[in-house]
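Pair request: fold both.
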Amino acid sequence: MQIVINIDENVFTRLFDNGTEDYTIVNDDLFAIAKSIRKGVPLPKGHGDLIDRKELLKQPMDLANYPSNYVKVARTIIEADKEI
């Protein structure tokens, strides 16, 4: 299952950027992580690529080739799910 979660930046930093070992994660952070997972949005089976829409909006639009060339410039954040 793939889900999209919104996690507090401070919790993320303590987990990944500070070199925190697994055994030193405090209970408050564990509760925050669990809460973020519970509030996550499951991605449906067979979803397409999830892209950064803001990157699309920054690109000049080529109306002659829209949408095929327009969408190719977007950075894929999560690859498409091939299962249907």
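--- second member of the pair ---
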Amino acid sequence: MGGIYLADQAGWIDLTPPDEPRAQPVWAVSFLATSDTDRTEASETISNDGHTITYVLTDANMDGLGDVELDIRVLNQNSGTAADSWPFRADLTFVTDVTGAGNNIVNTTGFDNRYDITWSLTESGEPTLQQISSYAVSNDWKTGKSDQLNADIRMAPTATDDLTNALSGKLIFVIGGITMTVHLAE
């Protein structure tokens, strides 16, 4: 510890330099083709950048939609040593409300205070993931490490049956600072 003590002044003055500033974490994030729903889709399309996935379902399949299972590849692209850890967060930030009165296409749980979503990682060991309400965080994601993030979303069939050709459903996530979108269309 470096410093000096000034008896007639403010007391101890710490001369130890602070930690170097770090840039915001940088992540590569993309939906994987193994993402799926519990219904038969007419089509599934992933955008070229991997940030948008579109499911087209028939009216009958949309009406009974109960589960969307997303597989997402996450790569820590931060500069640093292999021992450096970077904070990571995955969050469901928007869900279509078909009536404007709280009829969300995703079920809620916990006395209706959070969306019914479960986050997990596929590989064992680091990084680890902790779910807090509808989002998940990791504080031990090392530089250069990649893992498959899974989001299991329980849908509300009583709301998805109100989706039509004119009104598609949308789920928006922010994963590692990247906006990711799921479109549900008839």
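Observation on the second member. DSSP finds two helices and 16 strands in the chain.
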